[in-house]
Amino acid sequence: VAKNAGEPEFHQAVKEVAESLAEYIVMNPVLSKMKVLERIAEPERVIIFRVPWLNDKGEIEINRGYRVQMNSAIGPYKGGIRFHPSVNLSILKFLAFEQTFKNSLTTLPMGGGKGGSDFNPKGKSDNEVMRFCQSFVTELARHIGQDTDVPAGDIGVGGREIGFMFGQYKRLRDEFTGTFTGKGIGWGGSAMRPEATGYGTCYFAQEMLATRGLSFEGKTVCISGSGNVAQYAAQKATQLGAKVVTLSDSSGYVYDPTGITPEKQEYVMELKNVFRGRIKEYADRYPEATYYAGQRPWGVKCDIAMPCATQNELNGDEAAALVKNGCICVAEGANMPSTPEAIKVFQEHKLLYAPGKAANAGGVATSGLEMSQNSMRLHWSPEEVDAKLRAIMQNIHEVCVKYGTEPDGYVNYVKGANIGGFMKVANAMLAQGCC
Ligand code: NDP
């Protein structure tokens, strides 16, 4: 703790994993002898750098860039880049730590990493975003590569930013390789990558619901966020027969009791991805909806909750409100959106609750599939990628059930995901010696 002082999110993520693994490590003494968990909790490398860039007024602005290369035991570092003013070392270390387990769960050969900057893309022109991305990659380029470290998108980093970063990387290296994932479909991107995290979270929830003979059909779903993950979670939940009634952003949420239909979802995609507007505008456009400024959607009655915005966006009181309102299933599209207190409430009430490292692994899994297609110089059809994504999510669910089923039959998906994700990385680290 002292070594990582001032890193509360990182402590939170490590504590959860350590608690899940305690029994498993006692049963396998070689793990403590070889200090495997202690090594996993120490990044292999952290790179911090200056990112100077020129704004549209010709003034110099300075941000801080990071890449946390957490673990390369089972493959090159792999994980997203986040651009958000809240970005700091604690947040990126927690994300990189979680990513190591998540990537292992996908069964694909990917290590764990995460990076980003405290740069805020909101309110910036396309040219400003481009100049920032070019400066960011000018330094990052020397630390990444298709066999070393493969970044992707995350909060504040979508197709536009990946395009600018990939373009600069290509200029610097003079090579067209799969060093970034989330690329456009005409220039190395995989079909289904934009959809993958949201769709995968729904596929995982489908598997959880099936264990109790349930499905999305006829269910009411609350989703937070309105970015990449939230948009496609809403689309897939609707395709599976559910009614999605909320979306949010950092300013508030909208509640549409008539359901956010495919036509309305298209409007949200245009609003957020093209015009970079606020979710409040949804209620201006659709008067049947109400906008709640400064609030989160967890007080709304629903059967299924899907937090898809950011870390610690659902606390213990909000979890209690969801339970009281009859919620049966919580599938995390975001990383660590539920606080430890919220997780306790879900598990005490025996909800179907899946942590992000299992439920949202579809995004990085499809990034892994993008890497494979890039290496083979091939392009798979959307149907092919979707089938692989589905199979990967089903397999992660099976692993969670295998390692997380309690004596009373309740599936503790946190424990299942942590043990399942840990084993492969731990075995690789044992085989590779003290490194
Ligand atoms: P986007 O930037 O596309 O969307 C983020 C959404 O969350 C926006 O609606 C944003 O609102 C909201 N949000 C961000 N920060 C906050 C905050 N502090 N409080 C409330 N709302 C906030 O990001 P993604 O959809 O890609 O990512 C969402 C989550 O999913 C993150 O936790 C990410 O790590 C996780 N994830 C993403 C994957 C991917 O493939 N993209 C893969 C796996 C996990 P606003 O516009 O107001 O900022």
The helix count comes to 16
Question: What molecules are bound to this protein?
Answer: NADPH dihydro-nicotinamide-adenine-dinucleotide phosphate
Q: Low-confidence parts, pLDDT < 50 over ≥5 residues?
A: none
Radius of gyration, CA atoms, in whole angstroms: 21 Å
The strands making up the biggest β-sheet line up spatially as 9-8-7-6-10-11-12
Helix proportion range: 40-55%
In sequence order, what are the helices and strands, one letter per element?
Answer: HHHEEEHEHEHHEHEEHHEEHEHEHHHH
Q: Average pLDDT across residues?
A: 98
What structural class do helix, strand and pairing data support? alpha/beta
Content of β-strand: 15-25%
Describe the main β-sheet briefly.
7 strands, mixed
| Cα distance spanning the termini | 22 Å
- Please tell me what the overall shape is: globular
Count of β-strands = 12
Characteristic terms for this protein:
binds NADPH dihydro-nicotinamide-adenine-dinucleotide phosphate; 435 residues; seven-stranded mixed sheet
Short description:
With 435 residues, the chain is of the alpha/beta class. It is 47% helix and 15% strand. It comes from Alistipes communis.
Description of the molecule:
With 435 residues, this protein is of the alpha/beta class. 47% of the residues lie in helices and 15% in strands. The protein is built from 16 helices and 12 strands. It has helices at residues 8-27, 29-33, 36-40, 89-105, 126-140, 159-173, 193-210, 228-239, 262-274, 280-285, 316-324, 340-348, 356-359, 362-376, 382-404, 413-431; strands at residues 45-54, 60-71, 77-83, 112-117, 149-152, 220-223, 243-249, 252-255, 290-293, 304-306, 329-331, 352-354. The strands form 2 sheets. It has a 7-stranded mixed β-sheet, sandwiched between helices. The chain has a 5-stranded mixed β-sheet with strand order 1-2-4-3-5, sandwiched between helices. It is globular and about 55 Å long. The model has no long low-confidence stretch (mean pLDDT 98). The structure holds NADPH dihydro-nicotinamide-adenine-dinucleotide phosphate. Residues 153-156, 158, 197, 225-230, 249-251, 308-310, 313, 333-335, 360, 363 line the site of NADPH dihydro-nicotinamide-adenine-dinucleotide phosphate.
